[in-house]
């Protein structure tokens, strides 16, 4: 199984805002929804999905286990609670959201518990998020690379994370890019605007198309119907090799997310 290339993120969206975003996304044709325990919006996401009437098998739902639930006796119970909130019997993908702070719970323990959740049928696929090369190596040693579907990482034109990407791909682990638009920063970039003008596309479409053309899955979010609809059109956009090389040149190691006490020592 593989990770769908294009989905809808729900980070920072709560209450009626996330209900409206997911409802609109589903109306427009989105079928991949990404949430997390720490987003505190799983129940609202589940409400919007249930109200849509779309058959469960048509959807791909991802959630992420928060660091407080990594212990073997907590992880599966917390996943069952996520399923209850999301009103589903299983997830398509369950991720470890961040590495355990100060290695309080060993990688082997939480990856083993996550693999057990998969064997119990609570999730179809499992993976990690915000993992460095060293952490991926530990996860692979614990359960085998064949069980790790993806590493979801901050990745955008200004932070291309090539060391992590290269190692993941060498192990058959797909990359999911979050914050692909860098909170909108890259949309103002002259190079991306130049490509967008020539292709009669938006800078967001160009950036999302770049990431998908690199082989990454993307999960952009928006609260505006026009943006949700526009972003979808990135799936039909193809960049030239010159365009791809130009965007490759924009990398400057500009990281936007690194929460103190949780973030690992980045590669």
TrEMBL record:
InterPro entries: AKR, Aldo/ket_reductase_CS, NAD(P)_OxRdtase_dom_sf, NADP_OxRdtase_dom. CDD domains: AKR_AKR3F2. This is 2,5-diketo-D-gluconate reductase B. The active site is at 39 (proton donor). Pfam families: Aldo_ket_red. It comes from the Bacteria. Keywords: NADP, Oxidoreductase. It comes from Pseudomonas moorei. NCBIfam families: PRK11172.1. GO terms for biological process: methylglyoxal catabolic process. Belongs to the aldo/keto reductase family. The keyword Translocase does not apply. Substrate binds at residue 97. Residues 7-251 form the NADP-dependent oxidoreductase domain. GO terms for molecular function: methylglyoxal reductase (NADPH) (acetol producing) activity. It catalyses: hydroxyacetone + NADP(+) = methylglyoxal + NADPH + H(+). The record marks 64 as: Lowers pKa of active site Tyr.
